[in-house]
UniProtKB/TrEMBL annotation:
Pfam families: Pribosyltran. It is found in: Cytoplasm. GO terms for cellular component: cytosol. InterPro entries: HGPRT (IPR050408), Hxn_phspho_trans (IPR005904), PRTase-like (IPR029057), PRTase_dom (IPR000836). Its EC number is 2.4.2.8. One of its GO terms (biological process) is guanine salvage. The keyword ATP-binding does not apply. Belongs to the purine/pyrimidine phosphoribosyltransferase family. This is Hypoxanthine phosphoribosyltransferase. Pathway: Purine metabolism; IMP biosynthesis via salvage pathway; IMP from hypoxanthine: step 1/1; Purine metabolism; GMP biosynthesis via salvage pathway; GMP from guanine: step 1/1. Keywords: Cytoplasm, Glycosyltransferase, Magnesium, Metal-binding, Nucleotide-binding, Purine salvage, Transferase.
Amino acid sequence: MQVMHEDIDKILFTEDDLRARVSEMGHQITADHQGESLLVVSVLRGAAIFMADLVRNITLPLEMDYMAISSYGNGVKSSGIVRILKDLSSSVEGRHVLIAEDILDSGLTLSYLMRNLESRNPASIEVATLLRKKTRAQADIDCRYVGFECPDEFIVGYGLDYAERYRNLPYIGVLKKSVYC
Ligand code: PRP
Ligand code: MN
Ligand code: MG
């Protein structure tokens, strides 16, 4: 395994943990959707790496599309305002949509996205999130596929950033407080 980056306090999920769990999620999604084709929607930028690994473990016909939404900017807290920075290229109407997200925190991003996509008349809409923080605020979001529950700490790596950095770490770890305090 790679040496831990100096800005990381501790590793929560190693490269091996991630590979094993993402593979399980892909196989579960495949088993649950026999005979269907999927429109897999990744939420840029954080979910790009998860999406890339997830789809390689799904053996169904599928299309990949991307939407860019941002609520955090460069801060460590959600701004509370969700903005669409890039819309989908494909039509959602009549499709089985699977949203691939890296992390469900306050739930603001996903609840906005699901409302937005539901208004475009998909055949179905489901969520696969790699990580979910256990907080009361997002209790009402229905995630069919969850990779790991994670602690309420500021985490980075495997797509997750702080001020656009650390997305390329192959593991997920807790960022040292000294980096952002
Ligand atoms: C992060 C993360 C999720 C969202 C989760 O995205 O990738 O999309 O926040 O937080 P929430 O449940 O509180 O909405 P961010 O807005 O930082 O954009 P990014 O994906 O480009 O990093
Ligand atoms: Mn994101
Ligand atoms: Mg971010």
